[in-house]
């Protein structure tokens, strides 16, 4: 082989090598979203928010200088099957980070799968208590959604008797359990507490109990279709003018199902509503509809939480200068960013964030009160 041939070969090999480095430099981030099942309604908007987050971060240079490559798995499957889908993305497709917006049963399965070996960002509203190594929670907790809101309602609407109704699983029960303490601190009493299966489609007996209890406030910890059915029936039963309602998982899709006409005296407490009138929230909404068009899936708090998960990934990894859990866990304490929800800061691997209370008018949700920088109430050791 002459020298010219050797040099050409070496240059070609170097070019191939650098191309390989460039290919490997992409950061594979898996998002586990409900693409099927009862929560499948949220899949399209959640996936859209993930795609917008990737576009936004990549335009700024990616995460730790690496462009993000998005991988998507179905978390709407039963926990064991969702866990297998996540395993394929992690071990098969090389995901180095997982962001999940799904129910707590799937979260438990994924925490058991990952065992702190891969950074896992859990983004939706949830019941609290998750302290697993390498798990970072962006979602609202009952303490955030209720501790500031119930005293405000006590002052503004002066309810004396609360009735609590929820689905029979950990989030509904933990939410109602937390609410009892906040309610009694206001001097009001809890006159009813019941839990219904997800399959319930007739609420007549529950509504009769609410009516007979004399409740002038109802905490609704029902999910999805159950919340829609209950709230519509509540109005049809003639209770909308007799009691206020407070929901902590009533977002834009659920409200659309309920209908504004059935939402008189209905309040919702959340970390995000699509019509928040802050510059960051408006910029996010404008970017969303610019990318996906007027027919884009409706923005809502659960979907938007996925976007927040990407922002927290960027904040923690930048502080840690690494994607290793051993470095990210300590770096997570005090990690912060400003996003559509406002200023967000992580403590005990949960977030301090603004909480918004909205009622409903003929245009949808209307934010009536903002509670700034509300702590999660969680005490995970970092």
Work out the number of β strands: 14
What is the fold-level CATH name, i.e. the topology of the largest domain?
Answer: Rossmann fold
Low-confidence stretches: 1-24
Provide the succession of SSEs.
Answer: HEHEHEHEEHHEHEHEHEHEHHHEEEE
Distance between the ends:
60 Å
Second-tier CATH architecture of the largest domain: 3-Layer(aba) Sandwich
Radius of gyration: 23 Å
Residue share in helices? 40-55%
Q: Tally the helices: what do you get?
A: 13
| Main pleated sheet | 9 strands, mixed
Amount of beta strand:
15-25%
The number of domains is 2
Supply the CATH class of the largest domain. Alpha Beta
Features:
Rossmann fold, 5-stranded parallel beta sheet, alpha/beta, single chain, 382 residues, 2 domains, 9-stranded mixed beta sheet
Annotate the secondary structure layout:
Elements: H1 3-24, E1 27-33, H2 43-59, E2 68-74, H3 79-92, E3 97-100, H4 104-114, E4 120-122, E5 135-137, H5 142-146, H6 149-156, E6 161-167, H7 170-185, E7 189-196, H8 204-213, E8 217-221, H9 225-236, E9 244-247, H10 252-258, E10 266-270, H11 279-292, H12 301-320, H13 325-332, E11 336-339, E12 342-347, E13 350-361, E14 364-374
Parallel strand pairs: 1-2, 1-3, 3-4, 4-5, 6-7, 6-8, 8-9, 9-10
Antiparallel strand pairs: 10-13, 11-12, 12-13, 13-14
Helix pairs in contact: 2-12, 3-4, 9-10, 12-13
């Amino acid at each position: 082989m002459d020298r010219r041939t050797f040099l050409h070969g070496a240059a070609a090999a170097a070019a191939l090598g650098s191309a390989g480095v460039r290919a490997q430099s992409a950061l594979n981030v898996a998002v586990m979203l409900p693409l099927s099942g009862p929560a499948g309604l949220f899949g399209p908007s959640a996936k859209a928010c993930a795609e917008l987050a990737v576009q936004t971060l990549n335009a700024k240079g990616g995460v730790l200088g690496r462009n993000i490559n998005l991988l998507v798995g179905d978390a709407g499957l039963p926990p064991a099957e969702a866990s297998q889908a996540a395993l394929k993305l992690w071990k098969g497709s090389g995901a180095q980070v997982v962001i999940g917006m799904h129910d707590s049963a799937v979260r438990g399965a994924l925490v058991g799968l990952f065992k702190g070996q891969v950074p896992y960002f859990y983004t939706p509203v949830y019941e609290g208590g998750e302290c697993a190594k390498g798990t970072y929670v962006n979602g609202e907790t009952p303490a955030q959604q209720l501790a500031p809101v119930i005293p405000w309602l006590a002052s503004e609407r002066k309810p004396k008797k609360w009735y609590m109704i929820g689905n029979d699983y950990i989030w509904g029960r933990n939410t109602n359990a937390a609410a009892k303490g906040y309610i009694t601190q206001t001097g009001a009493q809890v006159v009813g507490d019941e839990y219904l299966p997800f399959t319930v489609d007739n609420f007549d007996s529950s509504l009769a109990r609410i009516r007979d209890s004399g409740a002038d406030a109802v905490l609704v910890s029902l999910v999805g279709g159950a919340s829609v059915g209950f709230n519509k029936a509540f109005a049809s039963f003639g209770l909308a003018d007799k009691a206020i309602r407070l929901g902590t998982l009533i977002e834009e899709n659920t409200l659309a199902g309920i209908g504004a006409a059935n939402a008189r005296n209905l309040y919702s407490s959340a970390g995000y509503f699509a019509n928040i009138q802050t510059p960051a929230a408006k910029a996010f909404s404008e970017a969303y509809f610019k990318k996906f068009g007027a027919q884009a899936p409706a923005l809502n708090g659960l979907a938007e939480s996925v976007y927040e998960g990407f922002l927290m990934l960027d904040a923690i990894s930048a502080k840690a200068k690494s994607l290793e859990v051993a470095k990210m866990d300590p770096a997570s304490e005090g990690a912060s960013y400003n996003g559509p929800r406002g200023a967000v800061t992580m403590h005990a691997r949960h977030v301090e964030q603004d909480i918004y209370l909205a009622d409903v008018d003929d245009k949808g949700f209307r934010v009536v009160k903002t509670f700034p920088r509300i702590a999660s109430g969680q005490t995970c050791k970092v």
